[in-house]
Amino acid sequence: MKVVQLKKTKALTGDKSRSFQVINPENVGARRFMITVVEVRPGGSTPAHEHKTSESMYYVLEGRGEILAGKGQPKKVVGANTAVYFPAGGTHGIKNV
């Protein structure tokens, strides 16, 4: 078992956003997934990106988020209490709308 406190993780900054990789391959040795807590202020976003070997997801706690996926994929707006899954290598980003 490994325990990671949010306050001890490094914040990555985006456009009016902060991302905290709480669980990842480097800090706990996870091989196929990561858990990132993302705070996105109104109008802010995270840049579209991918994790080559790790699956990831978004879980929207409150408000609405426009999900950005890979080229040719439609954008989708989701609301609170919604999860969105991305396979390893899947391009993703989110904008607070």
Structural class, from helix and strand content?
A: mainly beta
Strand order of the largest sheet: 5-4-7
Give me the strand/helix succession: EHEEEEEE
Number of helices: 1
The multimeric state of the shown protein is single chain
**What is the total tally of β strands?**
7
Round the mean pLDDT to the nearest integer and report it.
92
N→C terminal distance: 37 Å
Task: Write a structural description.
It is built from one helix and seven strands; from the N terminus they run βαββββββ. The protein has 97 residues and is mostly beta strands. A three-stranded antiparallel beta sheet has the order 5-4-7, with no helix packed on it. Strand 4 (65-68) and strand 5 (76-78) form a beta hairpin. The chain is globular, with a radius of gyration of 13 Å.
Topology (elements, then pairings):
Layout: E1 11-23, H1 25-28, E2 35-45, E3 56-60, E4 65-68, E5 76-78, E6 82-86, E7 93-96
Antiparallel strand pairs: 1-2, 3-6, 4-5, 4-7
